[in-house]
Amino acid sequence: MRVFREAKLVIASHNPGKVREIAELLAPYAVTVLGAAELGLAEPQETGTTFAANAALKAHAAAQATGLPALADDSGLAVTALGGQPGILSARWAGPDRDFGRAMARVNDELGDDPDRSARFVCALTLAWPDGDAVSVEGKVAGTLVWPPRGSGGFGYDPIFVPQGHDMTFGEMTPAAKHALSHRADALAKLVAACFADAA
Amino acid sequence: MRVFREAKLVIASHNPGKVREIAELLAPYAVTVLGAAELGLAEPQETGTTFAANAALKAHAAAQATGLPALADDSGLAVTALGGQPGILSARWAGPDRDFGRAMARVNDELGDDPDRSARFVCALTLAWPDGDAVSVEGKVAGTLVWPPRGSGGFGYDPIFVPQGHDMTFGEMTPAAKHALSHRADALAKLVAACFADAA
Fold first, then answer.
1. Hey, where are the domains in chain A?
2. CATH top-level class for A8-196?
3. ipTM of the complex
């Protein structure tokens, strides 16, 4: 399998929360992380029907546009009692102004008094090179939804998600505590195991 | 890197020429190949802007729909003097009735008397597992375009493509001769090296 050996990596995301988290998770690796927004990249339409397909779309588009390897994330919340929704529509439930207060309220409304509050966060990552090679992995974390939202850390649906075996929501945890548990950390660990050279 | 160890593999293509070629190329591996058409799979829209993105879209959709690992191919002809066209539109230039006689004539018309007849075939392959993991590779073969078309082997633009260092078009070659040279064989060799267990 191809090994990642480049000095620069584009994070193919316009979501500052994701870019920050990925940069933090990649801190042990000798790589300069560039955000898609600072490179002036357009956001491709996320027309895939799975997290993995959307991550691949974004990674390949960014790698081709920049000539650099690009890492894209597509992730979201899959609620068991809602048949996996909002799923790949997790960001769209927040509307054009990315109002996740509204998105969390919608999840809570649609759950109503259903006793099954289980959910999981899923994170698909694709690392694509400009020549078309790519590696994709998927990470997950299981948990339970709470209401009202708690904490101001993280982003997205973090304030209503309590990971299995814990009491605090992702929104209440420090970044280090979340990184030890999260779907994104799980996916990145798989990606690093698959194709990153040893940490410096 | 994840190793492919499953007994069945879905070929996420409705193109019988591609399914046949991939089945032939995979003959040394102990794997039962199933075509997307025989499984009744819908063809997803190819909305990606690169071969690699389209291969990923198709592979992830088929893996999710079937619960089996799925291999998708997106490939085409990139003509130097046409700025890489038809590229990801290679199949669309053949129209809804997949008339590659028309598509080849269009390439020849657009080239006109341009002395640069160089082109390459590109093949992106994605192998996706139902859990979202995937590996993508890209294969290429350089060559020269001729007119009129010659030979009835292969499919697509094969009758006007003479691979570098050879005299016959892909359409004139035996399947074995084409498989020793082709972009699809190049891509599949990379994929096998990346993630197939040793041939039985």
1. 8-196
2. alpha beta
3. 0.73
